[in-house]
Prior knowledge:
The protein has 27 helices and 14 strands. The longest helix is centred in the first third of the chain and has 24 residues, at 26-49. With 674 residues, it is of the alpha+beta class. It is globular and about 75 Å long. β13 and β14 (650-652) form a beta hairpin. The strands form 4 sheets. It has a 6-stranded mixed sheet, sandwiched between helices. A 4-stranded antiparallel sheet has the order 2-5-1-6. Strands 3-4 form a two-stranded antiparallel ribbon.
Amino acid sequence: MAMKEKSILYFSISPVQGFIARARRTRDFWAGSFLLSYLAGQAMAVVLENGGSLIIPAVAKRKDAINDPLLEAVVRIRGKQAIDPADENLRIATLPNRFRAEIPPDFAPNRCKEAVKEAWSKLCQAVWERYVQPVTALGQNTEEIWRRQVDHFWEIVWVRGETTFPLERRKNWRSHIPPVEYGDKCSLFEDLQELSGYVRAKSKAEREKQDRFWAALRKQIGRHELDENERLSAVALVKRLFPLVAPEVLWEVPVRYPSTPYLAAVTWLQKVAASPEKAQAAQEYATDCARYLPGSARREDPDLFPALKEICAARMSLREFLSLDGKCFIKDAMLNPRVWQEQTDAQRDRDAFNTAEEHKKTAKRLVEKLSQLGEPVSPFYAMLVMDGDLLGRLLQKCPESVSEALGRFSQQVPSIIQEHNGITVYAGGDDVLALLPLEGSISAAAALRKAYVECFDDTNEILAQAGEDKLRATISGAVVYAHYTTMFTEVYAEAQRLLSQVAKNETGRDSLALTVWKRAGQVLTWSAPWEVVLEEKPNIYSFFVDRFRKDMQPSKKDTMPSEATGIGAREFTTSFLYNIQSRLGDIQLDAGSGLRTEEEKDAFFVDLITAEYLKCRERERSVGRKEARQLVEKLLPLCQRWWRDESGITQRAADCLSLDGIFLLKFLLQKGVE
Length: 674
């Protein structure tokens, strides 16, 4: 039988989440996504170099017709052609870890696998030669550990065939069995051995040798690249250090990636820097931080945020302020003695840091100056994840249209995230992963949802013409508001759980789920179909946040935490929220209530909440019952549990109140500042 002119290749690299989530820093987190995308690009490039074309993602029909900047750069580098290293698109992971391609009949798929291994090996070798090899003599079997881990980490699977989902069936073979790892484990990859090869529990001598190895490596790398308590595996070290060797292996990538406290402060920084009245105070604060904090303190890169970059270009005098370590803007971090100790280790000879009492006095002085710049900075940032719904079914119905729509969407993601002061970690196909300030995160999610739906207009029209009216292209999202001290592993895991279990399964897809993750863990979650989120303009949370912040300044009589800090609004007091919870939260309407319809039940709860609202406003300016009731009617959706049934119809629990949504509003108003 003659072989078909073309055949289909399914290709996959893993692990994915297990590689991305192992992170202690934002740069680690970004590096995981970027490296996976870069390695997948190597395999895709081999397909294009041999006359193939990519089906999913639909980013290249030929080698000379590529519409993804990262893939084009990979192809050009492989062909020893020049690229524009200043292109910011080359810093964003846009290629998925798996793809489907059309290949010539004589193409050997193993060439894709070898290309991935070669690119990975080149990166690993650069890190090894520059940083690890010089201290290898201090370790025990360090080179053996290194080679074992870098050579056997990735599971690369490919299948040639026409059947549906052949890759999933191929993975069931489980042919990739990683070697056994002994000894003390890596601080990030708990299943991999750390590189020194010593075991601390064996003896004091082994512990001292292990410490000596890591002290030498830390000196070789630079103390800000490797924390005092970190002992890493080969994979973790490559992930941590590859930005430092990237210029010689691929192209220049960000070495300074925004920290979580800096992400939390970006909107505040923009506001302060834009105020001529505060410019002088901001410069003085930066000078004091430079004077009293060691010169080796971590520096941020404001140029990664277009709004801050524009300010720096217009007013160079503010660059020092906007480049301060993110912790310099958060009161709790400044007062934390462990942060001070970390920053003074390198300069113990400085008189100002000789005693704990001096540390405390210096921190208080700086905090006082920080408070003069405005309201406190939120200690929370947002992690946003989004994922298309029912994409497998859509691809079966109209693969070409879906692939083109996904390509258009992924190209729009970075600019939308930038508009909301965020950083795009990954934007490939229907998947989005981004880090943003607390402010604007919901608006960013809504803007991405709007872009996704618009990109699929043609696809939805094709489906309607084919009689598939109920099958529409939609996207679900999840936002985790995380305290800046929370481990990325926990935040990322929660974001994925929130997306898959809450937004998609429990709420029924085409939905948004939101949760607050404080230092003690998750404290509240609210989710709803998108039409509920967008019921008010621009979205239900932004509507109320904007309204309450436009209220009058708080009176001196009101000493609630939100008003005392100037963050909240008198229209929405803490006592009002807690009274709703304590007095109304346990009410459950049953058949004996006499209320039959949802409208009657809504009116009942609106009357109760309005009465409580008016009671809490007695000491404030007068508010008419009609005005108060109109406000509460708009507020009611945040007091209810929502979901979409199997038919896609939006449902709600009208028999009781569910108050997580309204407490989330309180959190957004106060920005998590306690």
